[in-house]
Amino acid sequence: MSGRLKINALFTLVLAVLFYAFFQISKHNTALSQVNPFADDPYDAVGSFGVQFALFAGLLSLVRAFRPYQSIDALKNQELLLLRGEYLLCLSVMITLAADIVALVRHPSSWIGSPAGYLLAALTGGLMFLAALGIWLIHYSAPNTGSATARNAWLRAAGVIIVSILILALYPESWRQSTHGELFTVLVGIAFLFVPLWAVGIAISPSPGTFFEDCIDDFAAMHRWLKAHAGPFVVFCNVFETIAVWSFVRPILNWINPHKHTWNFAILLGIAMGIVLVLGETLGEGGGPPQVGRLVLVTAIFISLECAGVLLGYALLAKPMGLFRETSIAQAF
């Protein structure tokens, strides 16, 4: 990859980290949390999944920018995938901030007139500027990637954006007072993130075509590079290869291999992320150990919602981002 594309990948990863820091600080800082109108769902759900997606896309873009490639043809297609992933990362930040702005507009009394409120609005605007700057930098790196179907794609994207903002602006926030209403509100937030992200991402970014290297190929390339440059630490690569071919490990790897089972990996990822979030919430609350019944209920809710978000994002964005193909063109070991 060229130096400019590598710089863009670093910039977008830094943007994702700043986005995560903004999300956490605006919720947990004593002053900001008291004036934060987007700390509740559906706005909080948009931010939660937006942060997760941005960090994932940032790490993936970093790998694709710096990993070695074996052919010029593969490199050209991977450049388009890299650009699309970076576009989607910046768009996820902008869409989340758009939801935050809707919350600010709907609840002006919660932040107007307060220094912390003005600071929160300034941080929101500053992060929006950085995301827009990222879009400009990425577009500047690929000025000749227009598509003949771009007009239709933009019309669809504009319609999705208008409808999504209207739904969020008019959404009855009182619905989140009940358990079922809260769950539905979270689902609305998830849809607000991923549906516009898919529509705008397809319109704004170039198509990589049918031939590309997916995440498994990225991992294989990084593994080969690490093995060639590990020196005395190559023993860890050898141990990993040995474990991967064990008789009881191989069926597990085949079961989660997206080339063979499209949805298994996404479901497992959603479950794992749900458990991580439950642990984070439980440890963050402090106090004594939670009741078993409540812990089971909270765990089931977190896993269900996380799986819903991961599966929707996977269904809409796995193909555009080139995450997986039906068959791999790389041999990892």
Ordered list of secondary-structure elements with their pairings:
Layout: H1 3-28, H2 30-34, H3 43-66, H4 72-106, H5 115-141, H6 150-170, H7 179-204, H8 215-229, H9 234-244, H10 250-256, H11 264-285, H12 292-321
Structure notes:
The chain is mostly helical and 333 residues long. The chain is 75% helix and 0% strand. The radius of gyration is 21 Å and the shape is globular. Mean pLDDT is 87; it is low at 328-333.
Précis, in short:
With 333 residues, the protein is mainly α.
Strand content: under 5%
Helicity range: over 70%
The rounded Rg comes to 21 Å
* Total helical segments: 12
Order of helices and strands: HHHHHHHHHHHH
Nearest-integer average pLDDT: 87
Segments where pLDDT lies below 50 for 5+ residues? 328-333
* Structural domains: how many: 2
First-last Cα distance:
24 Å
Oligomeric state of shown chains? single chain
Taken from the alpha-carbon principal axes, the silhouette is globular
Question: How many strands appear in the DSSP assignment?
Answer: 0
Structural class: mainly alpha
Descriptive terms for the model:
333 residues; mainly alpha; 2 domains; globular
